[in-house]
Write a structure and sequence with these properties.
By secondary structure, this protein is of the alpha+beta class. The strands form seven sheets. An eleven-stranded mixed β-sheet has the order 1-31-2-3-6-7-8-9-18-19-23. Strands 4, 5, 24, 27, 28, 29 and 30 form a seven-stranded antiparallel β-sheet that branches. The protein is globular.
């Protein structure tokens, strides 16, 4: 026994030694240095100043060298993130992760991000091609010179990244457009809902924008638009009143289709069974940006602010940087790792920010296949050949690649078959699958000196459609809704439509000159928070799926409460946790609720207190009660009629976000079909309140002091490998208790029906006073570096959590003088 015990100890020591050796070579080895001199394929000396947060300030003498070094530095900090994104757009995730990702690869290949990017390469201008190639060469130079010192993730997964290509950068833009889209999922939900619930109830779930809520452009600011070329072909109404209790005629009127078309849609609804959400686009994404004129600021010049709400993780989705060519370019801001330039930020004359327009730019067409030919589909009485792409997908652990066919009709790729549950041929028409030229837009925006030049650059920015706000040193402010937005021959994109007839084709896009815009509005401010862009007198249909107006209302309230605004006021608004949705709903809900126990009384009093000042702070008990109550009210109202599958799809769609705003008290939804007695809205809310108290008591005990929002609502900045233990301890950052919610300007969104863990928010916040471009303010959620051992992997986290900012230093002299700055030189070989 003693010998066995000794042998076991020796074995443990050997294993421990091997573990320590492995740990050193994969994790604890020195991180990439930001100092020294690098001999590279540059034409002249390039100097990089890394400030105390590791943010690179690149000074080059020409464009080739600037973008070559930008590519090198992004790879230096974010190579694994870049490669993982590339694997997503190319559908090669299963090559490194194994067969569990095979279906995801099939879906990503079907979508065609990379296919579309490759088709765009020949159409690039010489300048675009040179910039993209210089950037790719910089990435590849880093890869080639660091094959023995790659980021730790490559050691863990045991592979090496391939060379970067121009199409890789282009495809990342298409992928980001996908994450910001969701119309397809909404169509699938509405179709499934019509089948299960009937058209009247299904349509009552369609998102409705309140008629009294603010639009980005007001009636008096609206430009005088000429009538569309084909008025009859354009759906001019965006007002969709609730149809609860109405008949089929009302449903037909709201759909703006004739009776025959409505009946055809109902027949098509019966074809789809158990449709599941296709995944991909992230839920509850949104953004804020606003600009105020000098008449409202302390400096007398405009102030602009922007915080884009995307998935929160580590490393951040954004990369901070400054790009300088003395005498011709000086711009600072952020870009997606893997793409050259700066997409949001400011230069020495102008500043800009973006939010998602949320237009309806995706349509599903139900195709009718030829029974005798799998790859032919009917169109206006004839059979048309589809395009078929034969692909082979490499899978880790399998000797042979998996063959896979992609079928593309005149409307787009057939998405059926790449996700379980969609068992009829559905083709996706999507603006991002058209050839567009966003690289030219980025180059133009970075160099623009005034609104006219900036607007000219926007002619190239087609997907995703964005709300651009603008400010300049001459005191001007402006706004433009920009991008490709289709004009439909019939229908409004609410449901899948027949693809075998030409009745539902896109007739083109809204003319660029007629997209909503405003320049120097008299009120002195412009606010966008994904709310409705313009009123219903606008002659073109943009979308029905506007974000609820709560963030826009609160931002506007804060901006108009005072004059003499400063960047400090802007950062306070970006971190504002006031919940306008709770302020709207709770007063009437509290009237309906009757507490029935001492603990109920305490919870009711906490809700009353919260209703008087609904701040979603981490220490608020009322915030917890409201958000749990909202989720329980959703379940009590809708689950009984929808069932598990449709209810899950409902939660993942855009429908529940402000559904209670639109349901009258006598809505038939407020009735539990599983019980014989008639129920009312008050009964539903009472049931939801009791369930809320029971749930919180079970999770956190009877003491309400423990029911704080920060206990439920936490943020973990998760790494792609952080779901694997013990790698989570190395890669993930958090969890942290945090405030905000889906409805607050300081966004911290969770999935409805889930566990309240934060999924999306603002990975980067920034604000700039045009009177002091040298000292704009910004903060990234984690840090510049993607290397866990780097001091810049998480050095901005605490600032972000506490609503603090760093100086976005633009003056190179100040950067150089800072004792925290280090310097790296690139010299010709």
């Amino acid at each position: 026994m003693r010998k066995i015990a000794i042998a076991a100890v020796v074995l443990l020591l050997v294993l421990a030694g091997l573990a320590g050796f492995t740990w050193y070579w994969t994790v604890d080895r020195p991180v990439t240095s930001y100092t020294g001199t690098v001999a590279a394929a540059v034409q002249d000396r390039v100097t990089v100043y890394r400030d105390r947060y590791g943010v690179p300030h690149i000074v080059a003498q020409n464009e080739h060298d600037l973008y070559f070094v930008q590519g090198y530095l992004m790879a230096q900090d974010r190579l694994f993130q870049m490669d993982l994104t590339r694997r997503a757009v190319t559908g090669t995730l299963s090559e490194i992760f194994g067969k569990d990702f095979l279906e995801k690869d099939k879906f990503l290949r079907t979508m065609g991000f990379y296919r579309t990017a490759q088709a765009a390469v020949p159409a690039l201008s010489p300048e675009e091609r040179q910039i993209l190639q210089a950037y790719a060469d910089g990435v590849n130079f880093y890869i080639d010179t660091h094959l023995s010192d790659l980021p730790v993730e490559f050691s863990v997964l045991r592979y090496r990244p391939g060379h970067w290509e121009i199409a890789d950068s282009l495809a990342i833009g298409k992928y980001m457009a996908w994450t910001l889209g969701g119309n397809m999922d909404q169509e699938l939900f509405m179709l499934a809902a019509a089948k299960i619930l009937g058209p009247e109830k299904a349509l009552s779930l369609a998102p409705v924008y309140p008629t009294t809520a603010p639009t980005i452009i007001t009636e008096t600011e609206r430009l005088a638009f000429p009538p569309p070329a084909s008025p009859a072909a354009v759906d001019t109404s965006q007002a969709y009143a609730s149809t609860a209790g109405a008949g089929t005629a009302a449903w037909v009127d709201n759909l703006h289709v004739d009776k025959a078309q409505a009946e055809a849609m109902l027949n098509l609804a019966a074809l789809v069974q158990s449709v599941r959400g296709l995944g991909g686009p992230l839920t509850d994404l949104g953004s804020n940006d606003w600009v105020v004129s000098g008449s409202r600021t302390a400096s007398g010049l405009p102030i602009l602010a922007n915080d884009m709400h995307l998935q929160l993780g580590v490393p951040s989705i954004w990369y901070q940087q400054q790009l300088t060519i003395p005498g011709s370019l000086a711009v600072t801001g952020v870009m997606f790792p893997g793409v050259p330039g700066v997409i949001v930020g400011h230069n020495d004359r102008i500043a800009w920010g973006v939010t998602n327009v949320n237009p309806d730019v995706q349509d599903l067409y139900i195709e009718k296949p030829n029974p005798g030919h799998a790859y032919q589909f009917e169109y206006d009485g004839h059979w048309e050949d589809a395009r078929v792409i034969h692909e082979k997908i490499p899978v880790k652990g399998q000797k042979d690649p998996v063959p896979f066919d992609i079928v593309i009709t005149r409307h787009g790729p057939i998405i059926s078959g790449v996700e379980p549950g969609v068992d009829v041929p559905l083709a996706l028409r999507w603006t991002a699958l058209d050839q567009t030229d966003e690289v030219a837009a980025v180059i133009g925006m970075d160099k623009a000196r005034n609104w006219q030049e900036f607007e000219a650059a926007l002619r190239h920015f087609m997907v995703p459609a964005q709300n651009f706000v603008y400010a300049d040193v001459d005191g001007h402010i402006a706004y433009r809704a920009n991008g490709l937005i289709p004009i439909r021959k019939n229908g409004n994109g609410l449901m899948p439509v027949p693809g075998w007839v030409s009745d539902y084709e896109w007739e083109g896009y809204i003319p660029w000159s007629e997209l909503p815009q405003v320049f120097d509005p008299a009120r002195g401010y412009i606010v966008t928070a994904n709310q409705k862009v313009i009123d219903d007198s606008y002659p073109y249909f943009l979308t029905q799926e506007w974000a609820p107006p709560y963030r826009a209302i609160e931002i506007t309230r804060r901006l108009t409460a005072k004059t003499g605004l400063t960047t400090k006021d802007m950062t306070a608004i970006q971190n504002d946790w006031y919940n306008q949705e709770a302020a709207r709903l709770l007063p009437s809900w509290l009237v309906a609720i009757k507490p029935a126990s001492p603990q109920d009384n305490q919870a009711y009093e906490a809700l009353q207190q919260y209703a008087r000042d609904p701040e979603d702070t981490p220490d608020s008990v009322g915030a917890s009660l409201f958000h749990v109550l909202y989720n329980e009210a959703l379940a009590a109202t809708f689950h009984d009629e929808m069932g598990d599958s449709l209810y899950k799809q409902f939660l993942a769609s855009g429908s529940p976000v402000n559904v209670f705003d639109n349901l009258p008290e006598d809505s038939p939804w407020f009735d539990d079909v599983t019980t014989p007695q008639k129920e009312t809205r008050a009964d539903i809310l009472q049931k939801a309140f009791q369930k809320t108290v029971e749930d919180l008591d079970r999770q956190y005990g009877p003491d309400l002091a423990r029911w704080t929002w920060g206990r439920l609502h936490t943020i973990t900045f998760a790494h792609p490998l952080g779901s694997v233990k013990p790698l989570d301890r190395l890669f993930n950052v958090g969890p942290f208790a945090y405030g905000g919610s889906n409805a607050t300007p300081g966004a911290a969104s969770y999935q409805l029906g889930g566990d309240f863990a934060i999924e999306s928010g603002a990975p980067w916040r920034y604000t700039v006073d045009m009177a002091d471009l040298a000292h704009a303010l910004d903060v990234e959620a984690t840090g510049v570096s993607g290397q866990p051992r780097s001091p810049h992997y998480r050095d901005q986290v605490q600032m972000w959590l506490h609503g603090q900012y760093k100086t976005m230093t633009f003056d190179l002299g100040e950067v150089q003088k800072d004792p925290g700055t280090v310097t790296e030189q690139f010299v010709p070989r």
